[in-house]
Write a structure and sequence with these properties.
The complex is a heterotrimer. By secondary structure, chain A is an all-alpha fold. In chain A, about 85% of the residues lie in helices and about 0% in strands. Chain A has one domain (about 1-175, about 185-220). Chain A has helices at about 1-30, 40-70, 75-105, 115-135, 140-170, 185-230. Chain A is flat, with a radius of gyration of 20 Å. Chain B has one domain. Chain B has helices at about 5-20, 25-45, 45-75, 75-80, 80-90, 95-120, 130-155, 160-175, 175-190, 195-220. In chain B, helix 3 (about 45-75) packs antiparallel against helix 9 (about 175-190). The two termini of chain B are about 20 Å apart. Classes of the chains: A mainly alpha, B mainly alpha, C alpha+beta.
Chain lengths: ~230, ~220, ~160
């Protein structure tokens, strides 16, 4: 399995890089500015991929956690762990670019929008997940508890989203337009290219990180075993 | 032992030891009292703002005290190696969860019932004709916090830095409970028609059902070998 | 290890090249020009001009769709004639971008389109997030290489033998 990852990850990384490069060209240079948002629309070409990949990261984390609780395969746990680590990165990226997009468009860095709040909660859960893992010594228990947390979080996130949406419509009648802006064809190319590129890059990064965690664990285990033999 | 006996036995055992020591409930109670006082000083409220802020303050106090209680709920088990025994025995895991959930819910509700009259006095509320609604909101909100909280307290009791980890893991997840409980309490206090805040009580009930089931199922994996 | 560093040097060079091209593009697009320079350098092509609509300078001609106004900025005052629809964004003391050409004979700017101000700063800030991402990936990949090396050196690497 780990060999397969090592063998194929390069292709994901390379095609991802190419897609992002071409997407950047289309997004930054070749596509026209939006008639309503102006040039700021170009931030969308990096924000939307960040947001969708961070949701995918949580999806991968959830599936891997369920799978781990079922099969107890340490490599799957490494995959979940890696996905959470990358997820923290992509979620922060989504929040950062979204905030920068919000300033010129909505004239505010932050608003208690359902999407923003759910992404913040998502980020908090992921950070809590990573923290939890560092606080448990026993490897097997660490994986088990982390998987439980990930599943609870996965059940919670949609509820958070809907409750904040209700709450917001109650307190602040929508004064700013929602993001559901129709996308013209010329703007679709860079968006699709960047999204595909980000997905490939995400796969690549998860592959690399899974390997890293697996190798670390392998090294520790083997070293431990060697030391044990010496002591005996 | 069958399933329901385990639940009853566990909850009864917790209640008995609490009645003997009284340390859990008294520490929760005084902590909540201090939280309320701190809030009242830091917001310099008049009558009107007090009424607006009161639901939020109340639920923050309840949730914080709940975390104190939840954090302690499994430590007694850990000290006497009872957790090991529970793990060894062929007791249904779900029953352990439900027993612990029952005792946690009970402790939190006791503290809330003692605190609630204080809120009525401090904030000059007139609540008597709407008491059943308040009881419903208190119960559903508290059940939501303790359903997730019991699971996490069993999880964090066996790790380092458990006092920090429990709130860090729990608080982001109970955002819907906080929103729902605060909105519903506010709605009752402002004497709005029930149709305006019924959705929040429904949200609380949905949250309770979902997370009791999910935690019940996941608890099996916590006491696992 | 050598191939790894080479690859990342290549990526770094590509990144620097993209930044350089972007900066060049930006400075070619955005710089102050006098009307004479515009007339000399872009006799027919359209240029974009940023400026603030001078208060009270807007004159609407009832007969046609033409609007006369003057844009101020950089200590200059340029008369503009705009013809077309989309007049919502045309307001007093609003900074905007007009697209059109400089009419040298009549000494005024003939605008065909009105755009909002480009917020290049925001866009640059958003895309800067790529830098920590690349750094993160670099550190991670480097760590994997080092781990493989370490495992190889200590001769304890037995792949796929019953997992862990």
């Amino acid at each position: 399995m780990i060999r397969k990852i090592r063998k194929y990850e390069g292709w994901f990384g390379a095609t991802g890089a190419v897609c992002i490069a071409v997407g950047l060209y289309f997004g930054l240079a070749a596509s026209p500015p939006d008639s309503y948002q102006g040039e700021v629309v170009r931030i969308m070409y990096v924000h939307v991929p960040f947001a969708s990949t961070s949701m995918t990261a949580y999806g991968v984390l959830t599936v891997a956690s369920l799978w781990y609780l079922w099969k107890r395969d340490p490599l799957i746990d490494n995959l979940a762990h890696a996905s959470a680590g990358i997820g923290v990165f992509f979620t922060s990226g989504a929040l950062y670019t979204g905030s920068i997009w919000g300033k010129p468009t909505w004239n505010t860095w932050w608003t208690w929008d359902a999407r923003l709040v759910s992404f913040t909660i998502l980020l908090l859960i992921l950070i809590g997940y990573l923290m939890l893992r560092t606080f448990i010594e026993d490897k097997e228990r660490e994986s088990r508890y982390a998987a439980i947390l990930a599943i609870v979080g996965a059940v919670d996130l949609p509820i958070v989203h809907f409750s904040v949406e209700w709450w917001r419509t109650l307190h602040q009648p929508l004064s700013i337009s929602q993001r559901g802006v129709a996308i013209a064809g010329v703007m679709l190319y860079p968006l699709i290219l960047m999204s595909v590129g980000f997905y490939l890059l995400f796969t690549y990064m998860v592959g690399v990180r899974t390997q890293m965690l697996y190798l670390k664990q392998l090294l520790e285990a083997k070293k431990g075993r060697l030391l044990g033999e010496v002591h005996l | 032992m069958n399933f329901f006996n385990v639940i009853r036995w566990l909850a009864w055992k917790d209640l008995l030891s609490e009645l003997r020591s009284r340390e859990n409930i008294s520490s929760m109670f005084f902590f909540a009292l201090i939280v309320i006082l701190i809030f009242s000083f830091s917001f310099s409220m008049d009558q009107q703002t007090a009424k607006e802020l009161m639901p939020g303050i109340m639920w923050v106090a309840f949730v914080f005290t709940g975390i104190i209680g939840l954090g302690k709920s499994f430590t007694a088990e850990l000290q006497n190696d009872c957790l090991e025994n529970l793990q060894m025995n062929p007791i249904p895991r779900g029953a352990i969860y439900l027993g612990k959930l029952a005792s946690n819910l009970l402790f939190m509700l006791i503290v809330e019932v003692i605190l609630f009259p204080l809120f009525v006095i401090f904030f000059n509320l007139d609540v008597f004709e709407k008491l059943p609604l308040f009881v419903l909101i208190l119960t559903t909100g508290t059940l939501g916090v303790s359903a997730v909280g019991t699971l996490f307290s069993a999880m964090t009791v066996q790790i380092r830095a458990r006092e920090v980890m429990l709130p860090i893991l729990l608080l982001p997840l109970i955002v819907p409970v906080m929103i729902g409980a605060v909105e519903a309490t506010g709605g009752v206090l402002r004497s709005e028609p029930i149709s305006l805040y019924r959705q929040w009580i429904e949200l609380l009930i949905i949250f309770d059902v979902i997370f009791t089931i999910v935690s019940f199922w996941l608890f099996e994996f916590i006491l696992d070998h | 290890m050598k191939g790894f560093y080479l690859r990342w040097t290549g990526l770094l060079l590509v990144g620097i090249w993209i930044v350089a091209v972007g900066a060049q593009y930006y400075y070619r697009e955005v710089r102050p020009l006098t009307p004479e320079q515009v007339a000399r350098e872009h006799p027919a092509g359209s240029v974009r001009m940023i400026g603030m609509v001078e208060a009270g300078s807007m004159v609407k001609e009832a007969a046609s769709t033409q609007i006369q106004l003057s844009l101020i900025g950089n200590g200059q005052r340029i008369p503009v004639v705009y013809e077309g629809n989309d007049q919502d964004s045309l307001r007093d003391i609003k900074t905007l971008v007009v697209v059109g050409r400089w009419d040298n004979t009549r000494q005024r700017f003939m605008a065909q389109k009105i755009n909002l101000i480009p917020n290049y700063g925001f866009i640059t800030a958003a895309y800067l997030v790529m830098i920590p991402m690349a750094l993160f990936l670099f550190v991670m990949e480097r760590r994997v290489r080092l781990l493989y090396n370490e495992i190889k050196l200590s001769k304890i690497y037995e792949p796929e033998v019953g997992g862990l």
